[in-house]
Amino acid sequence: MNKELADKVKTRRTFAIISHPDAGKTTITEQLLLLGGVIRSAGTVKARKTGNYATSDWMEIEKKRGISVTSSVMQFEYEGKRINILDTPGHQDFSEDTYRTLMAVDAAVMVIDSARGIEPQTKKLFKVVRQRGIPVFTFMNKLDRDGREPLDLVAELEDVLGIEGVAMNWPIGMGQTMRGLYDIANQRIELYHPEEGEDKFIPLVDGKVPEDNPMAQDPQYQDTLGEIELLEGAGAEFDKEAVLAGEQTPVFFGSALTNFGVETFLKSFVDLAPAPSDHTVNGDEDLAPDDDEFSGFVFKIQANMNPQHRDRIAFVRVCSGEFSRGLDVTLARTGKPVRLNNAVEFESSSRVQVSEAVAGDIVGLYDTGNFQIGDSIYAGKRKLEFPALPEFTPELFMRVSPKNVMKQKSFHKGMNQLVQEGAVQLYRNYQTDDYILGAVGQLQFEVFQYRMKNEYNSEVEMTSIGHRVARWIKPEDLDPKMSSSRNLLVKDRFGNPLFLFENAFAERWFHDKYPDVTLTEKL
């Protein structure tokens, strides 16, 4: 075992932030970057007129709409730890990108709007986190506004998500009457608006504020003491093993917008969250993060992050060993060698050339088309292949053609590059070769159309063929005569045949007619 490498790996903290749209995920990301000294001021997405956009929302359409539709990656150093944050799209139409991103992290931070509680998208994303068994840290956001009772919010974690919530701190008031946080873990009060010259923290003695402190007489504080007693009697006890097993979630309250409670959260998170652990390779082998041989997998591909350069970046999660510039690796899918000359990491909206990276780090490789989502790469002689990433069966479909037939070249280039990012799926009509796009949600089509026009100078015509049930068929079972107006026969970008059924009834009719034919779907 390489001790120097093992020590570096132990300092890594790699996590994704998940939430429902508008719960404040991008804002908390900004504040974490601010605390990491990466940016000088946090741009809130709401401030359209000032031109202050959130650093992690780099794409033009995200700035216009104020939503995240791609997963961004940001890195910074904090208290001797190397933090890799993956900010995921909250919008449900982009959940596929988020699911893949969750395969590349060691922990998740779940941001919940304290006025709304757990919303549908959070439930969906939490399910994936649960399947992977990764630790979850909960941040109850927007305490600067009036919200629901804290006891209800913690109870809802158990009722709706089935995970035990353990409070690390507790609000003293909320919204207009907010006074601060009772910090259970650090035995102190964190004041919301300390007076000039007053310390932000009041140490607790035997769980209480000293009698001579004005806070001792505050009715809100007295109410909080009653709730703390209740928590001590009936609440869950903090259990680090249960947290690391994904069975218990530490709960922190705060306000990302006013940067209150965020630093306390970050300090605890860095302390409690796990360093990178083993990955499964080749079906059933365990690969240790401090294994000497470099390996990793591509979980995301993003074209045109820099509009000036028309580039394409493959994001790789390093799983073992050490990355250095000029490293020669093998691409497991093709068996071909690739030299990793040009790699970057991301500090907010700027890029820095990577000279070295270890397990847990995320590196962006400039890609000329070698990589696909899910690709495994490894440096040694031993072949290492990571499990396949989840793929989703699209539900909405559109016919696509270029508006200007003279611009076929830019149309094809745009189609190929955007499809490789995995947000939309590309199909061709089996008979006519016409392009058909499939997606999980309508917004993906809008983003696709916008980016084709703005990044590839190609305006496209899109005609909806509505909701369809996509089912793959084995090539040896296929007779093209099986297709009809109710089940369109197409092939995916790898040439595999599938039917797009008009509805579930059409699919059942097909089963009845061809009982020996097996149809399959993705996730």
Compact overview of the structure:
This protein has 523 residues and is an alpha+beta fold. The protein folds into 3 domains: 14-69 and 86-270, Rossmann fold (3-Layer(aba) Sandwich), CATH 3.40.50; 277-376, P-loop containing nucleotide triphosphate hydrolases (Rossmann fold, 3-Layer(aba) Sandwich), CATH 3.40.50.300; 394-518, Peptide chain release factor 3, domain III (Alpha-Beta Plaits, 2-Layer Sandwich). It contains 12 helices and 31 strands.
SSE layout and pairings?
Elements: H1 3-10, E1 12-19, H2 25-35, H3 60-65, E2 72-78, E3 81-87, H4 95-102, E4 107-113, H5 120-132, E5 136-141, H6 150-161, E6 164-167, E7 169-172, E8 180-183, E9 188-191, E10 201-203, H7 219-234, H8 240-244, E11 248-253, H9 262-272, E12 279-281, E13 285-287, E14 295-303, E15 312-320, E16 322-324, E17 327-331, E18 336-340, E19 343-347, E20 350-353, E21 356-358, E22 362-366, E23 376-378, E24 396-402, H10 408-420, E25 425-429, E26 435-439, H11 442-456, E27 460-467, E28 469-473, E29 487-492, E30 497-501, H12 504-513, E31 519-520
Parallel strand pairs: 1-3, 1-4, 4-5, 5-11, 6-11
Antiparallel strand pairs: 2-3, 7-8, 8-9, 9-10, 12-13, 14-15, 14-23, 15-22, 16-21, 17-18, 17-23, 19-20, 19-22, 24-26, 24-27, 25-26, 25-29, 28-30, 28-31, 29-30
Helix pairs in contact: 4-5, 10-11
